[in-house]
């Protein structure tokens, strides 16, 4: 049986990462609607809750599906540290996403200054950034695990 090339493995990981991210988006929007529309929470606080829920969901999905081979194992402390690293890395990705969006709106020529196209570009750049940081920082081969 022929071993998969490193590029094929990265493509497969990226595809799983994108699928988890898509599901995370649905979690984000659903929690936002529940918190704001059903519970009546202020839209800003509802968004804070929805983002934390979505980030936690995508951390779990990526540690389970995308980077299962490198997920932290052992103590709850190591798993919590992995979650914190994921939150930090994805928060940076959100800044990259928003910065790309805002930059395109303010300095790019048409059609790239269109808010909807700028959103797509921002999400795409943010997703690439988050994939790289998740792969190299959060779920790196030097992962955190308790000794067996």
Shape: globular
Q: Please mark out the parts with pLDDT under 50 across 5 or more consecutive residues, or reply none.
A: none
Radius of gyration: 17 Å
Number of strands: 0
Assign the structural class, choosing from mainly alpha, mainly beta, alpha/beta, alpha+beta, or little secondary structure: mainly alpha
Q: How many separate helices?
A: 4
Fraction of residues in β-strands: under 5%
**Distance from first to last alpha carbon:** 31 Å
Q: What is the H/E string?
A: HHHH
User: What's the number of domains?
Assistant: 2
- Average pLDDT works out at 92
Residue share in helix: over 70%
Helix/strand layout:
Elements: H1 6-38, H2 43-66, H3 76-107, H4 115-138
Can you give a write-up of this model?
With 148 residues, the protein is mainly α. The two termini are 31 Å apart. It has four helices and no strands.
Keywords:
single chain, 148 residues, mainly alpha, 2 domains, 76% helix, 0% strand, globular
Give a concise summary.
The chain has 148 residues and is mainly α. The chain is built from 4 helices and no strands.
